[in-house]
Amino acid sequence: MTQIEKVKKGIISEEIKQVALAEDVEIVALCKLVAESKVVIPYNSKRKKKIKNLCGIGKNLRTKVNANIGTSSDCIRINNEIKKIEIATRYGADAIMDLSTGGDLDEIRKRIIDNCTLPLGTVPIYQAMVEEFKESGDVQNLDIKRILKVIRKQADDGVDFMTIHAGVTKETIRSLEIQKRILDVVSRGGAFLLSWIRYHQKENPFYQDFDEILDIAEEYDITLSLGDGLRPGCLYDATDQAQIKELIVLGELAQRALERNISVMIEGPGHMPMNQIKANVILEKELCREVPFYCLGPLVTDIAPGYDHITAAIGGAIAASSGADFLCYVTPSEHLSIPDIEDVKEGVIALKIAAHAADISKNIGKALDKDIAMSKARKELNWETQINLAIDPQKARKYRDKLSVKDEKTCSMCGEFCAINMVKESVKVR
To answer: Domain extents for the chain?
Structure first.
């Protein structure tokens, strides 16, 4: 049975118990949200290596953050990717996605699963494309048989959630052609399917044979993450006909999944002006029955290469405070290169800050308690506690120790004119 089927039949799984405990929510309330498909718990029911850190994604739960890792044809260093998983986990990522396209993809995925304690996601079209190219030399020869074979193979390995690009259809492509974009299509999966549809003059196999994908998802209780293959790749292209028509298609596909009691998420836009973000979140919730919304950022400006973890954190905070549930991190290397280990750390921390800020605004759980504890430590000029409470204690300590100070109670910014200390001293005098 899938997680949804279990809760509908009154069965409380270990996964439900773990998530309820981690989120400090009532089990009955969580079961209701899972049954209504407003919360998903990515967990492959046939996983051989159990997940240490399960997470629930959706309504009334903490905003979660995903970290992408993976090889490319130019950078096949699996030990490096495993190190990225360790760093992402250490700094608070809630899930990992393997986007590998270079090397032995089956072996790489197995190594990643063996070294990952978080829910793991993949994008099956990547492996299907790589395998077809290696075998025939032309990705346009790819057919649904290979796609389904890859999905099943990844499911059998233990993948917990998968991005399925089923919304790039003949109809949505026509909208793209009518309303011209600057950057056309920036999703790798979306771009391939667009070219495949044009080349064969046939419908997207993910869309055409969606029921067969549902069969596999149901068997393994995999969460389907319906991919936004036509997401805007720059601010100018945001909220256009193609993006919205694809979202409508994804809403229809989500409904089909829910009728089979299969957990589903919807992936959201990449680049978007700040004033459009809230409307996009509301639209997704309305069109897709309030299933969890998974956003890449959004990035709120196009002119910050090297700092796109910041542009994504700004957009992510707005999206999450507006109701988005799951944020995909963006690293400083976005648009420039494959991220290194330090980039992964910076990306995770930036989006964790955004997620936490949004949770405070939504009054989720005890999010504000951490900030209150930090405020009390600051009032007491308790530097050690402040550092330990920081999202990155190592960096906080580095800045604290950067310059020596005359009075260890103060910092090198204010010194003897420390506002907190002056107020304390005035109370003593009085």
So the answer is: 40-361, 367-429
CA distance 85 to 373: 29
40-361: CATH homologous superfamily?
Radical SAM ThiC family, central domain (3.20.20.540)
Q: Return the CA Rg of the chain.
A: 23
DSSP letter, residue 72: B
Q: At what angle do helices 367-379 and 341-361 cross, to 10 degrees?
A: 100
| Three-point CA angle 310, 315, 320, nearest 5° | 120
What's the CA gap between 322 and 274, in Å, rounded? 12
Q: Tokens 């070294």, residue?
A: 115
Q: What whole-number distance in Å separates Cα of residue 398 and Cα of residue 403? A: 10
> Residue 327 carries which DSSP code?
E
- CB-CB contact of 16 with 40 (8 Å): no
Can you say how many angstroms the Cα of residue 284 is from the centroid of all Cα atoms in its chain? 16
Amino acid at 392: D
Kindly report, residue by residue over 256-298, the tens digit of the pLDDT.
Answer: 999 999 999 999 999 999 999 999 999 999 999 999 999 999 9
Cα–Cα distance measured from residue 141 to residue 164, given in angstroms and rounded to the nearest whole number: 19
CA distance linking residue 197 with residue 263, whole number of Å: 28
